Amino acid sequence: MRSLTEELKKRLDKIKLLALDLDGTTLTDDKKIIPEVSEAIAKAKHAGYHISFLTGRMFAAAAPFANALELDIPIVSLNGTVIAESRTGKILYEKTLSHHCVRDILTVFDGAPVHKFIYEGDNIRHKANDPEILKYLELWAVNINEVKEFDLESYRKIYQILLVGETNILDKIAGNLNGETKCDITTFGFPSPRYPLNFLEIKSTGDSKGKGLKFLREYYELSQDQVLAVGDYLNDYELFNEAGLSIAVANATDGLKERADLITDRTNEEGAVAEVIDMLLDNGNQKSVMNKSGI
Questions:
Q1: Which of 39, 118, 196, 273 has the fewest Cβ atoms within 10 angstroms?
Q2: What is the pLDDT of residues 81-121, one digit of tens each?
Q3: CB 120 within 8 Å of CB 155
Q4: What pLDDT is recorded for position 196?
Q5: What per-residue confidence (pLDDT) applies to 193?
């Protein structure tokens, strides 16, 4: 990371909450947390910093990482659709799709050559028949269940729909959804970093990592300039917009790097989050955040 200016040092000194993305940032490519990152997070916790994970993962696939680190924290999952306590699973915020909206949405792309996944509670229901896609999903999801038909009436909570397919087909579906359904939904299309197909998320309007971070700020009674966000991908852009200081890891997309205040020297494989935390602690000479705030 480049040398810190006095202005950046002052901004670092205000930080009380670390908002960390998981995949591609805190986790290595094989979905592990290296010891150096674990130790750094423990130091940040001991120094009094609040820590939270904000991820596109479902809650059940994110909480085990917090538990392994002995963190009792709120986790923003499914890119802002669900916020829950890591240890108890208590839901602090959630926004579901109504059953009639899901039925309308499925009708729009009925027969289209795409793979369909419905996030229902802590489960994923799917009718995909491609083992490679399922293998990819298993890297960042759990409780993936194949069904012959979607039994919507039996699904208690539907958080979002995920489509996997060719870019031009997904773009057409996204356009049709805006014109053929009256449901209050938003779509987010993004390429897979490892699979030669694109993804399209369909969920309630307004949910994002940025909105999730705003919830956390209010939860902890913090101002925007007391939050530091670290990320690597397109869905972290709104996260950065809601943080007072944003840091992109070395393996981040070029667009996110342009938005970031700082870029780490290390990648997620090399412990980028540890680099950020070490910088933060060194800037404050490892004094307790609680002492800084006078509490």
A1: 196
A2: 999 999 999 999 999 999 999 999 999 998 899 999 999 99
A3: yes
A4: 67
A5: 61
Q: Which pLDDT score, from 0 to 100, does residue 137 have?
A: 81
pLDDT digits (tens, 9 = 90+) for 40-58: 999 999 999 999 999 999 9
Three-state secondary structure string covering 75-142 = EEEHHHCEEEECCCCCEEEECCECHHHHHHHHHHCCCCCCEEEEEECCEEEECCCCHHHHHHHCCCCC
Buried b (16+ CB within 10 A) or exposed e, 21-45: bbbbbbbbeeeebbebbbebbebbb
- Both tokens assigned to 12: 């670092």
What local confidence, expressed as pLDDT, does residue 135 receive?
81
Whose tokens are 């009792």? That residue is 72
Which amino acid does the sequence have at 43?
K
Q: Which domains does the chain have, with CATH numbers?
A: 6-94+208-292 (3.40.50.1000), 99-204 (3.30.1240.10)
Residue ranges in the chain whose pLDDT is less than 70: 2, 192-196, 284-295
Pairing of strands 245-248, 227-231: parallel
**Beta strand pairing call for 185-191 and 198-204:** antiparallel
pTM for this structure? Answer: 0.92
Identify which of 105, 282, 133, 118 has the alpha carbon closest to the alpha carbon of residue 198. Answer: 133
CB 108 within 8 A of CB 89: no
In whole angstroms, what is the distance from residue 109 CA to residue 127 CA? 14
